[in-house]
Amino acid sequence: MGTADHRTGGRDTGHPRDGAEPPALRRDDWERPSSPSRAEMAAERIAQRVTRTEPGARLGTKDELRTACGVSVGTFNEALRLLQARGLVTVRPGPGGGLFAARPAPAARPDAWPRDLDEQHPDEAARIRDALDPLLVEDALWHASPADVAGLRRHLAALAEAADAADPVAFAHADRLLRARLAALSPGTLLRSLYDGLLTVAEQAGHTAGPELLRARYDRHAALVDALDGRDRDRALRLAATRVGTPEAGGAPAPE
């Protein structure tokens, strides 16, 4: 029989009694650190630069970016691997080389096909965009780090501010930035490019939303980020598949 130990808060450290099996480890217990690593934080900092940079534009040399992040060479190289796995940066050697914001895949360049989804069809673009949400959320469940979730929460703050002000134009813009940040978590270059190509056109579909709809959309986004943070796959995918205006899982129908 096991004995209690003051180092374990009085818990029995022996074998389970009565033949009971020990509790199974949750995925969070073995996969997610309690706080973001320095490499993850450096990757997040550079990812923020990427969102403000035109595709193909130079971000800086490795030494410049490493110094800006304040990390060691080994930590920076790990951050670089994270960024490359997410398809956010490319590296070019030689004079004039360095890190560059990744370009979309040629077959899915945003300017190559959304011409058919012109500004007269924002609702169609929004419908297709929303249909892709579950795929992005599935990827985020596997690939989002704590630093990534923190980045999503920063975008949620802008959404909340726009909802409180009942400003549909500001809300639609903040919504686009949040969705772009979510898309950046996917390792699928084609999926990211398709989704990003829809965002600008789809943004216009939200310019006439009323205060109640803005609040319902914010609540949906906030619940989704919470589900990603908790690795609650069932709830995250339910929320991703639910367009505001239909019954939320566990809640009342959102207003039209």
Strand content: under 5%
Number of helices: 10
Helix content: 40-55%
Distance between the termini: 61 Å
This entry's quaternary arrangement is single chain
What value does the Rg take, in angstroms? 22 Å
Largest sheet: 3 strands, antiparallel
Whole-number average pLDDT? 79
Give the tally of β-strands.
3
- Give the overall shape: globular
Q: Would you list the SSEs in sequence order as H and E?
A: HHEHHEEHHHHHH
Instruction: Note poorly predicted spans.
Output: 1-20, 27-34, 106-112, 246-256
Order of strands, widest sheet: 1-3-2
Summing up helix and strand content along with how strands pair, one would put the structural category as mainly alpha
Structural commentary:
With 256 residues, the protein is mainly alpha-helical. The chain has 10 helices and 3 strands, in the order ααβααββαααααα. It has helices spanning 27-31, 38-51, 62-69, 73-85, 122-143, 146-164, 168-183, 189-203, 211-229, 233-241, and strands at residues 58-60, 89-92, 98-101. Strands 1-3-2 form a 3-stranded antiparallel beta sheet. Helix 2 (38-51) packs across helix 4 (73-85) and helix 5 runs antiparallel to helix 10. The longest helix has 22 residues, at 122-143. It is globular and about 50 Å long. Mean pLDDT is 79; it is low at 1-20, 27-34, 106-112 and 246-256.
What does this entry show, briefly?
Helix content is 55%, strand content 4%. With 256 residues, it is mainly alpha-helical. Strands 1-3-2 form a 3-stranded antiparallel β-sheet.
